[in-house]
Amino acid sequence: MSERRTFYITTPIYYVNDLPHIGHTYTTVVADALARFHRLRGDDVYFLTGTDEHGQKIQRSAADRGITPLALADEVVENYRKLWPALSISNDDLIRTTEERHKQGVAALFEQIRRHNPDAIYRGSYEGWYCTGCESFYTESQLLNGGCPDTGHPGRPVERVLESSWFFRLSAYQDALLQLYNDRPDFVMPESRLNEVRAFVKSGLRDLSISRSREKVSWGIPFPGDPDQTVYVWFDALTNYISALGFGLAGEAPRYEWFWEQHERRTVLHLVGKDILRFHAVYWPAFLMAAGLPLPSTIFGHGWWLKDDAKMSKSVGNVVRPLPLIEQYGADALRWFLLREIPLGQDGSFSDEALIERINADLANNIGNLFSRVTALIGKLPDGKVPDVPAFADETLEPIAAAAHATYVTSFARHEPAAALRAVVDWADALNKYLVRTEPWRRAGRENDCDRVLRTVAGHLAHVALRLYPAMPSAASRLLAALGFAGDPGTLVAPGEDLFARTAWSVTGRTVRTGDAVFPRLDRKAILGDAAPRPKAANVGAGLASEASVTRPKTAKETTVSEEIPSAPAPAPAQPPSEDLIEYDDFAKVKFRVAKVLVCEKHPNADKLLRLEIDLGGERRQIVAGIAKAYTPEQLVGKAIIVVANLKPAKLRGLESQGMLLAATGADGVPHVLTPDGEVEPGAKVS
Ligand code: MSP
Asked: From atom 24 of ligand 1, which residue's Cα is the shortest distance away?
C-alpha cells in the first residue's frame, strides 16, 4: 500500500449564484478524464469538486431573489448534483463551504497559521476598491478605466471599501514564492501561465485583507476570535481543498494525511480556469507556507470557452448550458468534444457546428467505422468469435501503435488530454489503413490470413477502446462489451496495477457483438435546422408558398424550423417532374393556420434560433424557428404569421417546438416570414 501512488485532483468550487454552464462543465470533465486515467493506471485517486457558497456575490444574488443565501445555495447545488452524474463524472466528494466540516477546516487553518507564524495575520484597515464579480480587492492604480481589471469581466463596476479588517502578510512571501516557481517549474502549468504568475509576484505583493466587516458581508464564516468580521471568501474557498480531506476535524484525518501530507509518491493537482490562477498560484501557497503545510504539486490554469468571441459568462449573457447538449448529443460526445477540441491551456470557441464536425470526423468516420467493420467481419465467422490464431506483427502498424501508446500515457501524465486523445485517433486511423491494405474481406480461406488479420486488429481494438475510457466511459464500456469484455473497465484494474502496461489482452475466443452503430453520424442539417443550399432568387409568388416549395420533413427535428422550407429553384420549371407532384389529399393533411406572436426571445442555447409563444386562436403554443439572424425578437412580437399547426412536436436544442412557421427565402438568402395580407384572426385556416 505505501508504494502506491496517490493522485488528488480538484476542480474549483463553483459559485452558487449561477447555474452550471459549459465553462464549469469543462473543468469538471477534464478533471474526470484525468481521474479515470490515473485510476486505470493503478493510482489511488481522490477526485473532489464542490460549491463556493459564501460571500458578497451570493449574499446579493439571494437578496435580489428575496430568499436566504442558504436557500439559494441549496437550490443551485442540486443542479450540480444532477449534472455531474448526467455527464458521467466520477467525483469522490462534493464539498459545500456551508458544511460544518469545512467551517472547522477554515478555523483550523487560521489556528495553524497563528501557531506556526504568529506574525502572519494582523489587524489593520483597508482602503481601496472591491469587485464583487471576482470577489477581489484592487488599488486605484490597478483599475481599468475606473472598473475591474479582471480580463473575465473588464470594466465591471467596483465599490469603494474603507474598513477595519484583518490582513495576511502576503508581502513577506514574495521571495519564497519566486523561489518556489524557480525550484518547481511544474508548480504552475502551462509554462506561459507560470511566466504570468512570476511577473505578477515580481511586480510586488501587497498584504491581503482576509476579512470583511460583518455589517457589510454577513454571509460568511465568522472570523476566528473576532465575531464582528467574516472570513474573506477566497481564504474560505481555497481551504476546501484540505477541509474536504478532513483537515481540522477532531481526531485523525487519515485521508488528509494520505493524499496531502507527507509521502513522496503523491500528486496534488488543482485544475482551475486561468481567471482564478492568481488566487491558487499566489495566495494559496502563501497561506500554506504560513501554516507550515505541504503545497500542492501543480496548479494547471486552463483556457476559456468563448461564445461569440467573449468569455462565456452569466454577466455577458452568452452562456451555453450543458443539459440540452447532453440531451442532443449524449454525454460521451460532449465530453469528447471538450477534451479533444482544444489543448488544455488554450481558449476555444464553442459551437454546435464544431462539435458535430469533431464527432463525425473522429468518432463516426474513424473509430466507429473501424469497430463496425471489424466486429461485422468477425461476426460473420462461423462461430462469431475472435479467431484463436497468432496475431501478425505488422511492420507499419506496430511502430504507430507503440508511438500512440507512448504519446497517450505521457500526455495524460502531463495533464494534456487533447494530445492523448489525438494519439488514440491516430492509432485507429492506422488500423483503418491496415484493414484497407490487408483487405481481410477478400482473404477468407487463404491460409488463415483473414483470421490472423482479424485477430490482430481485435487485439489493437481492445487497446483503443480502453484508452477511450477516460474521455468516454460509457462508449468505451460499450466498445469493450462488443469485443466480449464485460463490465466497466474501471473495475478491471487491481489496486496498483497499471492497466495500460498490460501488453497482452486475451481477445481470442471472445464472442463479439455486432449490429450497433457505435457512433452514428450526426446529421448537421437535421440538428441545426440549417436550410438546404439556398436558391438564388426569391420564389414566393402570389400568396402562400406553393406546395412544391414545402419540403416534406425527413425527421421530426427538421420539421420545426422555418428554414426547413427551402424555396423551389428559380427559374422554376413550368411543372415539377411528375414523381414530385402530390395528391390534393396529401396537401390537405397539412394544417396551415394564422397565428399571432405573443412573446419572442432568443433561444437560450442556440444563436440561430428564436423562441416564440403564439396565439393560435385561443390556444397558446411555443415554437422554435431558425430566423434569429434575420429578425430581432422585437420585430416579431405582435405580428401575424402562418404556421404548420399539426406537426409532431420536436425538441430543438432543449426547447420543444409545437409547430413550424413559414418563411420565404429571399434572393439575399435571408428568410422572410410570411404574413397574411390584411386583418385575419389568429387560428384562421390557410388553404
Ligand atoms: N468560486 C470560485 C472558485 C473558487 S476555487 C477555490 C469561482 N467560481 S466560478 O463558478 O466563477 O468559476 C469556476 C471555474 O469555472 C473557473 O475557474 C473555470 O474553471 C470555470 N469556468 C467558468 N467560465 C469558464 C469559461 N467560459 N471557460 C472555461 N472555464 C470557465 O471562480
From this structure: 23
Residue 5, all three cell numbers: 501512488
Cis amide bond preceding 387, omega within 30: no
Pocket test for ligand 1, best of 10, 11, 15 (most atoms within 8 A of CB): 15
Rounded to whole angstroms, how far apart are CA atoms 298 and 335?
23
Q: Is 13 in the pocket of ligand 1 (CB under 6 A)?
A: yes
| In contact, 20 and 322? CB cutoff 8 Å | yes
Given a contact cutoff of 8 angstroms between Cβ atoms, the answer to whether 299 and 187 are in contact is: yes
Higher-confidence position of 207 and 250:
207
CB neighbours of residue 257 within 10 Å = 14
Q: Whose CA is nearest to atom 19 of ligand 1?
A: 273
The H or E element spanning position 349 is strand 348-349
The verdict on the CB of residue 24 being under 6 Å from ligand 1 is yes
Could you tell me the distance, in angstroms and rounded to a whole number, from the CA of residue 75 to the centre of ligand 1? Answer: 19
Tell how far the Cα of 29 is from the centroid of ligand 1, in angstroms: 13
Q: Ligand 1 centroid vs 14 CA: distance in angstroms?
A: 6
Considering only the C-alpha atoms of the chain, give the largest distance between any 2 of them, rounded to a whole number of Å: 93
Q: Is 52 in the pocket of ligand 1 (CB under 6 A)?
A: yes
> Which cell goes with 148?
475591474
How far apart (Å, rounded) are the C-alpha atoms in residues 303 and 279?
16
Span 671-682, pLDDT tens digits? 788 888 878 888
| 270 CB near ligand 1 (under 6 Å) | no
Percentage of the chain exceeding pLDDT 90: 59
> In angstroms, what is the span from residue 17 Cα to ligand 1's centroid?
12
Q: How far is CA 553 from CA 328, 442, 582, 584, 675, in A?
A: 19, 40, 14, 18, 22
Residue 135, ligand 1, Cβ within 6 A? no
How much of the chain is helix, strand and coil, in % rounded to 5?
40, 20, 40
Closest CA to 201 of 229, 160, 173, 235: 173
CA 392 to chain centre: 40
Give the DSSP per-residue string, 387-415: --SPPP--TTHHHHHHHHHHHHHHHHHTT
Q: Which DSSP state fits 315?
A: T
Q: Whose CA is nearest to atom 18 of ligand 1?
A: 273
Backbone angles phi, psi at 511, to 5 degrees: -85, 125
pLDDT tier at 571, thresholds 50, 70, 90: very low
- Determine which residue's CA is closest to atom 21 belonging to ligand 1: 23
Contact in structure between 217 and 56 (CB atoms under 8 Å): yes
Distance 526 CA to ligand 1 centre (A): 33
Q: Where are the beta strands (DSSP E) in 361-463?
A: none
Task: Give me the residue label for grid cell 477534451.
Answer: 339
Q: Which three cell numbers stand for residue 476?
A: 468505451
Residue 411 phi, psi dihedral angles, 5° rounding: -65, -45
Total count of residues recorded for the chain: 687
Cell numbers linked to 605:
442555447
* Closest ligand 1 atom number to CA of residue 14: 10
Residue 176 or residue 144, greater confidence: 176
Q: Is 308 left (phi over 0), alpha (psi -120 to 50) or beta?
A: left
Q: Which grid coordinates are listed for 574? A: 413550368
> Among the atoms of ligand 1, which is closest to the Cα of residue 312?
26
Query: What backbone torsions phi and psi does residue 241 show, to the nearest 5 degrees?
Result: -65, -25
Q: pLDDT digits over 475-515, tens only?
A: 999 999 999 887 777 777 777 788 888 765 678 888 888 87
Give the residue whose CA is nearest to atom 29 of ligand 1.
Answer: 23
Query: Is 244 in contact with 102 (CB distance < 8 Å)?
Result: yes
Evaluate: CB of 273 within 6 angstroms of ligand 1.
Answer: yes
* pLDDT at residue 562, rounded to an integer: 23
DSSP 8-class letter at 82: H
Distance 275 CA to ligand 1 centre (A): 7
Cβ atoms 527, 556 nearer than 8 A? no
